[in-house]
Design a protein that fits this description.
- The structure is a single chain.
- By secondary structure, the chain is mainly alpha-helical.
- It contains eleven helices and four strands; from the N terminus they run αααααββββαααααα.
- It has helices spanning 2-16, 18-25, 33-60, 67-79, 89-130, 165-170, 173-188, 191-204, 209-231, 236-247, 268-280; strands spanning 131-133, 140-143, 150-153, 160-164.
- The longest helix is centred in the middle third of the chain and has 42 residues, at 89-130.
- The chain is elongated and about 75 Å long.
- 35% of the residues are buried.
Length: 288
């Protein structure tokens, strides 16, 4: 299994560095953000599994010719009189590394999910306390805040779209409709789940620059997907104006940024990229 381990290690290395770099510099994701988003998820999942697989296959190499027989032989040996059997220290180290890495990734995922749900509930309670329902817009709440802010709070059973008074005073009717449709797309397509998974990956590997790059790229892609949803009912010009007005409003950033939020503090470069895309890229084919 040494050759398999080396192949998996090489595959993991490719997915950890050159592949994400090439993908982040590619031009085609702006034309097909859904495909690019799936590809980023595949890269992250395959990269993690190949890292674990490389360690496991190397660690189990003394126990059998393949992963299944090696795993069975290792379990039998571990439960018997000779726990490590024919394994050398380097194989024990590889198996220990696989267990620690797998446990670390899983634990960070669980912690991220628990924290995200806790923060979402707390935020929803504050919104209900500090906002009022927006007439003629079911599931939408209005905050008495001069800063132009819009975001969604998706949940398993209920979803809220939150708008500020500053946003309503800044945008005209078509631009406001564009923002609302954009936020509804985040909620219905559950972009929060995708972002949470990449946030967990970033938290698991804070020293790994590609994890941060992937998190940023995925954040831009979900904004493009939400834009495309809005474009199916709102003209591109109104949507582009809304993005430009909110991104250049100069409002202060909230203390913690909610993914999928339209605020004046959103990265100007991201907004510029979205506006250029709206002007140059036709709406991708999809269900109306």
């Amino acid at each position: 299994m040494i050759s398999t381990s080396l192949a998996l290690a090489a595959f993991a290395l490719a997915l950890a560095w050159p592949v994400p770099i090439l993908l982040s510099h590619a031009k085609w994701p702006t034309r097909a953000p859904a495909t690019a988003l799936v590809l980023w998820q595949a890269v992250a999942l395959a990269g993690g599994l190949s890292m674990l697989g490389a360690l496991l296959t190397f660690g189990l190499a003394p126990f059998g010719p393949d992963l299944v027989s090696g795993g069975i032989s290792f379990a039998t040996s571990f439960l018997g009189d000779q726990p490590w059997g024919p394994a050398r220290p380097v194989h024990i180290l590889a198996l220990s590394g696989a267990v620690l890495l797998g446990g670390h990734l899983l634990l960070n995922l669980v912690v991220t999910i628990v924290r995200a749900e806790r923060d979402r509930r707390r935020h929803a309670q504050l919104v209900l306390l500090l906002s009022t329902p927006l007439p003629d817009a079911p599931g939408t709440r209005l905050l008495d805040n001069p800063a132009p802010v819009a975001y969604c709070l998706p949940g398993a059973f209920t979803t809220m779209t939150v708008l500020s008074a500053g946003l309503l005073s800044l945008l005209d009717e078509d631009e406001l409709d564009a923002v609302i449709e954009h936020e509804r797309a985040h909620a219905t397509q559950r972009h929060d789940i995708v972002l949470m998974l990449f946030r967990a990956w970033k938290a698991s590997l804070p020293w790994f620059p590609i994890a941060d790059r992937a998190h940023r790229e995925v954040g831009v892609l979900v904004e493009m997907l939400a834009d495309d949803h809005a474009r199916r009912s709102i003209d591109d010009r109104s949507l582009a104006r809304a993005v430009a007005l909110v991104s250049t409003s100069g409002s202060a950033a909230p203390p913690h940024r909610i993914q999928g939020t339209w605020t004046g503090a959103a990265p100007v470069e991201d907004a510029r990229q979205r506006i250029l895309r709206l002007e140059a890229t036709p709406l991708p084919a999809g269900p109306k």
